[in-house]
């Protein structure tokens, strides 16, 4: 998750780069570090570096990371021939590499050739059964094909092994909410709160799930979690404030007037 | 003793400086050799899963007060229940992992390979220092010391009346051994500051207390013993083509030694020592890690068992009230 300060810095760099100032490489590095999804900008500026042989040679060893970043951005913007070129360059340099294999399978995914992509991932997973990113790609593919239950299955199997991966728990929670399986979603949000108790986002989401589930106990718990969100954000989160009001609304009829 | 010995500056030029330079160079060389010799070990699924389980259990312990009591209890049961709890390790499995570690010749070979990168330069440098630089006073320590340090610091000097602050070059060697870590972190980059003491003392959460000198001495004894055994084993097995009997004898020796140490140390520290012996941060042997993890699993289980749940959310409510009141004002 991107914090506010980092986002401000990212935006500043972005505007600087867009208006012709320098700092393209820093912008790209920051995007890569924060895993932000700014594919068009990355593509535009990344290509400008890669197509200019002078600045490309100035990068030295980092040039290959840039190729990877641009390839993924190109796939995101559906510029598939650009992506194919980048991947071809990478595979020429690093033949038989797992990372490049993953990029090739992602290209197949982007083209929409689901069966081929699945075969490619299966082959890669045979050689490296414990690669985290590969498992996550499988989940993403299942989700993109609309096969949500398969995505849930894959994600559960992934979490059986890598149970400390909080991004995966978050993804699973959101899928469960979209499927209206609120009890399971609550479980996932509890995992998230356990691993990062000071992030207000998880408290808020947990409160909302509890509120949606309904029932007296859940509503009281929801009130507490909305309150803790208010506490953690210093009262600035409007949704939590609304949440507290809404949760107390039925409370007026069951418990009578309560202070504050 | 109030006399002041005047030390020849030539000592500084030809003993202290070359010794430091040599140790730095050997450290750099060792780093590159280790990098070359590092074989990629595919991650073991079981070990990986257990590591993640431990992490999740720790998160549970840390954040226990933030989730409702019912869900906490459900999770605790999931981790610690007797039949299929994640952290529950049946008694016999825990013993086997350690015994397995020492009866497998392949693992001894691996151990030896890893220990090689540390033992050989250390031994050689120490022998070199002793041979060339013994028998004279090399330096003066700027602070006074008690007489007990005489045997440690003045090893080559056979005069018992010289002030203890005047030390031999052996102590300069040890000073460098423990002190060049900072320099290595500058030269080789932050993560590669692998000096011997740091590797010896990295225990990954076992609470191994490096200030207990006795432990370290015993541990070093074990370490050297293991290395000797591994070297003899290697020679016997590979070079001489000795029969299984010799290997069995060595097995017995090692297990006997381990047996002594099992009595001397509580189980948690023993696992840490096992890690000390294998001696390499990245490529700890599977069985050793399994032994460790079994210990850490039971340690985690105990700590999760004793967590008292106290739901902190009601307090949050009150604090939120105050925050809001302040905002409204």
CATH superfamily of the largest domain in chain A: Tetratricopeptide repeat domain
Which structural class do you get from the secondary structure elements of chain B? mainly alpha
The top-level CATH class of the largest domain in chain A is: Mainly Alpha
Q: How much of the sequence of chain B is in beta strands?
A: under 5%
How much helix, percentage-wise, in residues of chain B? Answer: 55-70%
How many separate helices of chain B?
Answer: 14
Could you give the count of β-strands of chain A?
Answer: 0
Total strand segments of chain B: 2
Shape of chain A: globular
Looking at the structure, what is the overall shape of chain B? Answer: elongated
Q: What is the radius of gyration of chain B computed over CA atoms, rounded to a whole number of angstroms?
A: 26 Å
Strand content of chain A: under 5%
Q: For the record, give the distance between the C-alpha atoms at the N and C termini of chain B, rounded to a whole number.
A: 75 Å
Characterize the largest beta sheet of chain A: strand count, sense, and whether it forms a barrel.
Answer: none
Total domains of chain A, how many? 3
The low-confidence runs of chain A, each spanning 5 or more residues with pLDDT under 50, are: none
Under the CATH scheme, which architecture of the largest domain in chain A would be assigned?
Alpha Horseshoe
Mean pLDDT of chain B: 69
Oligomer: heterodimer
* Major sheet summary line of chain B: 2 strands, antiparallel
Organism (chain A): Cocos nucifera (Coconut palm)
Keywords (chain A): Endoplasmic reticulum, Membrane, Repeat, TPR repeat
Family (chain A): Belongs to the EMC2 family.
Subcellular location (chain A): Endoplasmic reticulum membrane
């Amino acid at each position: 998750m991107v914090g506010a300060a980092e986002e401000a810095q990212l935006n500043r760099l972005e505007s600087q780069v867009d208006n012709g100032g320098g700092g393209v490489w820093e912008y790209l590095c920051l995007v890569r570090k924060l895993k932000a999804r700014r594919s068009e900008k990355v593509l535009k500026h990344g290509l400008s570096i890669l197509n200019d042989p002078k600045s490309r040679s100035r990068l030295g060893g980092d040039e290959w990371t840039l190729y990877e970043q641009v390839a993924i951005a190109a796939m995101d913007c559906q510029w598939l021939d650009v992506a194919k070129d980048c991947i071809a360059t990478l595979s020429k340099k690093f033949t038989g590499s797992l990372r490049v294999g993953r990029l090739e399978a992602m290209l197949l995914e982007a083209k929409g050739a689901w069966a081929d992509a699945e075969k490619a991932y299966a082959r890669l997973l045979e050689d490296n059964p414990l690669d985290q990113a590969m498992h996550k790609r499988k989940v993403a593919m299942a989700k993109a094909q609309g096969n949500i239950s398969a995505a849930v299955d894959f994600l559960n199997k992934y979490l059986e092994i890598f149970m400390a991966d909080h991004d995966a728990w978050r993804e699973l929670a959101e899928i469960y909410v979209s499927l209206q399986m609120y009890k399971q979603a609550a479980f996932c949000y509890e995992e998230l709160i356990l691993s990062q108790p000071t992030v207000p986002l998880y408290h808020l989401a947990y409160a909302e799930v509890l509120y949606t589930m309904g029932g007296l106990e859940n509503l009281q718990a929801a009130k507490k979690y909305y309150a803790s969100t208010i506490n953690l954000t210093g009262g600035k989160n409007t949704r939590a404030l609304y949440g507290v009001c809404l949760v107390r609304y039925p409370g007026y009829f069951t418990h009578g007037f309560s202070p504050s | 003793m109030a006399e002041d010995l005047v030390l020849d500056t030539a000592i500084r030029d030809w003993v202290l400086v070359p010794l430091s330079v040599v140790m730095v160079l050997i450290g750099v060389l060792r780093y590159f050799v280790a990098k070359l010799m590092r074989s990629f070990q595919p991650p073991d699924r079981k070990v990986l899963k257990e590591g993640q389980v431990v992490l999740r259990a720790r998160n549970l312990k840390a954040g226990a007060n933030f989730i409702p009591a019912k869900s906490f209890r459900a999770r605790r049961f999931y981790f610690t229940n007797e039949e299929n709890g994640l952290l529950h390790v049946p008694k016999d499995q825990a013993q086997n992992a350690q015994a397995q570690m020492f009866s497998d010749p392949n693992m001894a070979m691996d151990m030896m390979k890893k220990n090689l990168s540390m033992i050989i330069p250390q031994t050689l440098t120490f022998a070199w220092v002793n041979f060339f630089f013994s028998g004279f006073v090399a330096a003066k320590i700027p602070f006074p010391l008690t007489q007990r340090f005489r045997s440690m610091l003045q090893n080559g000097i056979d005069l018992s009346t010289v002030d203890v602050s005047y030390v031999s070059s052996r102590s300069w060697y040890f000073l460098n051994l423990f002190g060049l870590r900072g320099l290595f972190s500058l030269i080789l980059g932050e993560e590669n500051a692998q000096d011997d003491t740091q590797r010896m003392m990295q225990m990954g959460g076992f609470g191994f207390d490096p200030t207990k000198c006795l432990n370290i001495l015993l541990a070093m004894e074990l370490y050297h013993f293991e290395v000797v055994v591994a070297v003899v084993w290697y020679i016997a097995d590979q070079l001489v083509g000795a029969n299984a009997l010799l290997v069995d004898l060595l097995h017995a020796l090692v297990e006997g030694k381990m047996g002594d140490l099992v009595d001397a140390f509580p189980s948690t520290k023993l696992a840490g020592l096992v890690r000390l012996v294998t001696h390499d941060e990245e490529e700890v042997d599977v069985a050793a890690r399994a032994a460790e993890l079994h210990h850490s699993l039971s340690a985690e289980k105990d700590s999760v068992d004793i967590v008292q749940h106290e739901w902190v959310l009601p307090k949050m409510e009150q604090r939120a009230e105050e925050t809001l009141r302040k905002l409204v004002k």
